[in-house]
Amino acid sequence: MGNDELSIGMMFLVFGLPIVLFVSLVLYFGGGKNREENALNKLIDKHELPLISNWNRVVYTDEYGTTHYEKWPEEVSRFIESSGFQYSSLKNPEVLRLVTERISKKTALMAKMKTYLETGDPYDFERKCAELLKKYGWDAITTKKSGDQGADIIAIKNGKSVAIQCKLHSKPVGNKAVQEALSGKLFNSVGYAAVVASNGFTYSAKQLAQKTDVILLTSSSLSKLEKYI
């Protein structure tokens, strides 16, 4: 080996090897962080509905226009602990930021969707609900106004069929809506029954729905229908 080759080899040991080691460490730890972020995003998607529900429960805007997030970090910690998510590359503030960003965006989108669906009369509400379901891959058709037998919309996706009763009311709807949806399911020979109501349900309606396996949805959660069946 000549002096020139020896010098090049020494230069690599002195300068090149540390650089290679540094780049390898950066890629290793960076890759670990990306893997943990991807795993956390999948976990958020899996538990999206309860996370959104708990966001709406603990995050609120007071009468002076100030939004309060004080209880949200505790809810995120409970979510991480309950789900068993393990992480080493991410830090706690990063986990809180990732969960908060994802859920706040989803909540804002659902609120915007609710406003759109509920602008108009009850027939507009039915039509817009069907349009929204189509956007999410459902084959959804509105039924005739007379003789619908409790189904305002029949929706089908991936072999699953649902009879949906739509209620644009200013107050929570009661047992009658649940009974109508169940009737629509039986009459149309579909697999599931659901009610989508603009302002929620009474306690008795929730009880009856639980006993009869009728799915209860609000305007903002209609796009998540597939997650309920």
Q: How is the biggest beta sheet arranged?
A: 5 strands, mixed
What percent of the residues sit in helical stretches (DSSP H or I)? 55-70%
Low-confidence stretches: 23-28
Which structural category fits the helices and strands? alpha/beta
Overall domain count: 2
Distance between the termini: 73 Å
Strands in their spatial order, largest beta sheet: 3-4-5-6-7
So what's the overall shape?
globular
Q: Radius of gyration from the CA trace? A: 26 Å
> What percent of residues are in strands?
5-15%
| Number of DSSP-assigned strands | 7
Instruction: Give the integer mean of the pLDDT values.
Output: 86
Which sequence of SSEs, written as H and E, runs from N to C? HHEEHHHEEEHEHE
Helical run tally = 7
Structure description:
It is a single chain. This protein has 2 domains: 3-115, no CATH class; 122-228, Trna Endonuclease, Chain: A, domain 1, CATH 3.40.1350.10. The protein has 7 helices and 7 strands; from the N terminus they run H-H-E-E-H-H-H-E-E-E-H-E-H-E. The chain has helices at residues 3-46, 48-58, 72-83, 92-117, 122-135, 175-188, 203-212, and strands at 60-61, 67-68, 139-142, 153-157, 160-167, 192-197, 214-218. Strands 3-4-5-6-7 form a 5-stranded mixed sheet, with helices on both faces. A two-stranded antiparallel ribbon has the order 1-2. It is globular.
